[in-house]
Amino acid sequence: MKKIYANAEEALDGVISDGMLIAAGGFGLCGIPEMLLEAIKASGAKDLTFASNNAGVDDFGIGILLQTKQVKKMISSYVGENAEFMRQYLSGELELEFNPQGTLAERMRAGGAGIPGFYTKTGVGTVIADGKEHKDFNGETYIMEEGIFADLAIVKAWKADDTGNLVFRKTARNFNVPAATCGKICVAEVEEIVPRGSLDPDSIHLPGIYVHRIIQGSHEKRIEQRTTRKKEDA
Amino acid sequence: MPWDRNQMAARAAEELEDGMYVNLGIGIPTLVANYVGDKDITLQSENGMLGMGPFPFEGEEDADLINAGKQTITELSRTSYFDSATSFAMIRGGKIAAAILGAMEVDEKGDLANWMIPGKLVKGMGGAMDLVAGVGRVIVVMDHTNKHGDSKVLKECTLPLTGQGVVDRIITNLGVLDVVEGGLKIVELADGVSDADMRAATQATIVD
Q1: How many CA atoms lie within 13 A of B28 on its CB side?
Q2: GO molecular function terms here (chain A) (predicted)?
Q3: CB contact under 8 A, B126 and A101
Q4: Number of separate domains in chain A
Q5: Distance from C-alpha of B171 to C-alpha of B14, rounded to nearest angstrom
Q6: A3 in a domain, yes or no?
Q7: Is residue B181 annotated as a catalytic residue, yes or no?
Q8: Conformational region of residue A192, where left means phi above 0, alpha means psi within -120 to 50, and beta covers everything else
């Protein structure tokens, strides 16, 4: 089965529709599927719900879909870097569901693993626990969180082969792995598609079974907080 | 003289033992890394890295290598990378020995508030709730009072909680307090800070 597509628009053809739940990889602006987000913007799909740790910045990442008001709801752990997000949220145009970061990651992992719910100590005694089932195990209280089953997953990797085996680079792996697994369809954008057999089978980060469509392209890879030290400090 | 930021960080570094895997929060906790000395400490960054190195030299920044504060960082010879679900599995699973975090309020039951002020812009809890619920030991480093001079060490937190009964030790500019049965116990006073100074600046119950 052919998984390689010519561009992001073709890779999303037939898999994007209004009102769908999309799981997106990335942490901050690191490892975000920037080409696919641009293509979703161009598709005009609206009323989208994104499960994504962050919401990008005003002109990059999911932020570009906020500008065009294509997003109905965000499921995120931290959204502090985006002025348009805050404006829409405070005016009631945008729904927001805060999830603790590890709970969000595990909800995606669980969804991808066919687990509809799990218990965690995270958030017990906080507003996050309001309305959720509480259960004691070995004398400690846990709350139930639900797996995320997304209609579509969009992720960004470093390298892929034509069967969809993915390799990520450094901390750009982040949410890309759990997000990829929880989508009914997963589209991956990569920096390089390499010949079959050239990736070490022992070093595949995400097996191709999870990846249905692949595109290759060049990435801006914007840095959010450029922080350096001077040579003389060393 | 009460401790300054660097002295608080240096005191917090004394909490760390050889061989520990540790998560440091943003602000004063980040400075703790400067004071670990010869101890073999591995820093976790919850976006998916163990063995976090210092900031890169100018021109050597890598967009694919950032910490949980989204700052560019470097790797070490011991570094490993993993995905976010694995990262929080090791946090939730109690594999991280300690987290050193900042706080807006802490109370005598070990409740911690550090993510939200009602009526103000809410950015989100990030990984803070997972960390305080999961790691072996939670050490808070913060100023003892706010800019109005009100105690941040309370009988009961007034802000929405990050975690309930999660704090083990509080290190402030005035000294060190432990969360114990019935309240807080003074462990140490900063140089020149008296027992009376500490009690006056603390709203929480102090037990002997």
Answers
A1: 24
A2: CoA-transferase activity
A3: yes
A4: 1
A5: 11
A6: no
A7: no
A8: beta
CA dist A218 and A7 (Å) reads: 11
The helix (H) or strand (E) run that includes residue A108 is helix A101-112
- Residue B44: helix, strand or coil by DSSP? strand
The residue annotated as part of the active site, out of B46, B58, B181, B188, is B46
Averaged pLDDT in 10-residue chunks for chain A of 234 residues: 95 97 98 98 98 95 96 94 88 95 98 98 98 98 98 98 98 98 98 98 98 96 92 64
Which contiguous run of DSSP H or E holds residue A76?
Answer: strand A71-76
Distance, in angstroms, between A232 CA and closest chain B CA? Answer: 10
> How many angstroms separate the CA of residue A230 from the nearest CA in chain B?
6
Q: Specify the 3-state DSSP secondary structure of B103.
A: coil
Cβ-based contacts of B82 with chain A (< 8 Å): 173
pLDDT, tens only, A152-193: 999 999 999 999 999 999 999 999 999 999 999 999 999 999
Q: Chain B residue with minimal CA distance to A74? A: B124
Residue-wise pLDDT for B145-204, tens only, equals: 999 999 999 999 999 999 999 999 999 999 999 999 999 999 999 999 999 999 999 999
Interchain contact B156–A (C-beta under 8 A)? no
- Please report the ipTM that was assigned to this predicted complex: 0.96
Specify whether domain B5-200 bears CATH 3.40.1080.10: yes
Whichever domain contains A183, its CATH number is 3.40.1080.10
